[in-house]
């Protein structure tokens, strides 16, 4: 596997874990992490800002995951994009074998 592909997979897994943590911190009825602060008013202790941050980070991480997935698919579908820069570094000169001469005798394995 290519290191760029592995890097994309690691970034996708990290973004997914962060997204799960943020979603689990939210409450479907709007309480979530903001309910921990104890106020019923959304303006106390910046609770509204917390909800806005949680919503924006959810959308942002979702977008990051989509972009990373698309980029990894594009790079996997066209390996020439990945190998273009590493081809000159990794390419070893191909060894060409001389054609076998049909006149050379084949030796049988030694028996004991």
SSE layout and pairing:
Layout: H1 3-25, H2 47-77, H3 79-90
Helix pairs in contact: 1-2
Share of helical residues: 55-70%
Q: How does the major sheet shape up?
A: none
Q: What distance lies between the first and last C-alpha atoms, to the nearest angstrom?
A: 46 Å
Got a strand count?
Answer: 0
Which structural class should the secondary elements be placed in? Answer: mainly alpha
Percent in strands: under 5%
Taken in chain order, the helices and strands follow as: HHH
- Low-confidence stretches are none
Shape, per Cα inertia axes = elongated
Helix segment tally: 3
Mean pLDDT: 74
Cα-atom radius of gyration: 29 Å
Brief summary:
This protein is mainly alpha-helical. The chain contains 3 helices and no strands. One of its GO terms (molecular function) is protein-transporting ATPase activity.
What does this structure look like?
This protein has 112 residues and is an all-alpha fold. The chain is elongated and about 90 Å long. The protein has helices spanning 3-25, 47-77, 79-90. The chain contains three helices and no strands. Residues 88-112 are annotated as: Disordered. Involved in protein export. Participates in an early event of protein translocation. InterPro entries: SecG.
């Amino acid at each position: 596997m290519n290191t760029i592909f592995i890097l994309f997979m690691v970034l996708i897994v990290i973004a997914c874990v962060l997204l799960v943590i943020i979603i689990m911190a939210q409450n479907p009825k709007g309480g979530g992490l903001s309910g921990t602060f104890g106020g019923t008013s959304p303006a106390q202790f910046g609770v509204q800002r917390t909800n806005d941050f949680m919503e924006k980070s959810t959308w942002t991480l979702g977008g990051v995951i989509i972009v990373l997935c698309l980029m990894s698919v594009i790079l996997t579908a066209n390996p020439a994009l990945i190998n273009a820069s590493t081809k000159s570094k990794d390419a070893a000169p191909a060894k060409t074998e001389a054609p076998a001469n049909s006149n050379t005798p084949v030796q049988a394995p030694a028996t004991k």
